[in-house]
């Protein structure tokens, strides 16, 4: 049973509230990230995806531990995951890896294209 969710006004900011809510649910962070990538596949809203990754990182391991695991400074991580961030693919891959995720390629049409040598 999860604890009662506090009012947003009891937190310093919205991100802190989201992190607390995510921590209360068993698979909260997993579902949050999955939905964010599903939504990104539809609308390509990079800002929303970066905000979600920031909130998930804060809820999952915190930025101090994220910095240790990625080898990047907290300042660089905050900048990369800000709404105006423009992280390199490698940076996003490091962040996802530190959070226990990996990127996988999936064919959107449900079949593989195989090219044979002529």
Structural class: mainly alpha
Helix-residue proportion: 55-70%
- Whole-number radius of gyration? 17 Å
Number of strands: 0
Distance between the termini: 61 Å
Estimate what percentage of residues fall within beta strands.
Answer: under 5%
Number of helices: 6
Runs in which pLDDT lies below 50 for 5 or more consecutive residues are none
- Series of H and E elements: HHHHHH
Q: What global shape is seen?
A: globular
What's the overall average pLDDT, rounded? 86
The largest pleated sheet is described as: none
Question: What is the number of domains?
Answer: 1
What's this, in brief?
This protein has 6 helices and no strands. It is mostly helical. It has one domain.
Considering the chains and any ligands shown, give keywords for the structure.
single chain, 118 residues, mainly alpha, 6 helices
Task: Characterise the protein shown here.
With 118 residues, the protein is mostly helical. The protein has one domain. The protein has 6 helices and no strands. Helix 1 packs across helix 3 and helix 2 (28-43) runs antiparallel to helix 3. The N and C termini lie far apart (61 Å).
Secondary-structure blueprint:
Elements: H1 14-24, H2 28-43, H3 46-60, H4 62-70, H5 74-80, H6 89-98
């Amino acid at each position: 049973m999860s604890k009662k969710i506090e009012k947003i006004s009891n937190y310093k900011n919205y991100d802190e509230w989201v992190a607390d809510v995510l921590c209360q649910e068993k698979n909260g962070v997993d579902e949050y990230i999955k939905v964010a990538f599903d939504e990104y596949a539809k609308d390509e809203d990079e800002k929303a995806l970066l905000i979600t990754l920031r909130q998930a990182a804060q809820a999952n391991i915190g930025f101090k531990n994220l910095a240790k695991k990625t080898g990047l400074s907290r300042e660089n991580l905050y900048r990369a995951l800000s709404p105006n961030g423009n992280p390199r693919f490698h940076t996003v891959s490091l962040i996802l890896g530190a959070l226990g995720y990996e990127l996988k390629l999936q064919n959107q049409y449900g079949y593989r294209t195989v090219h044979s040598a002529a």
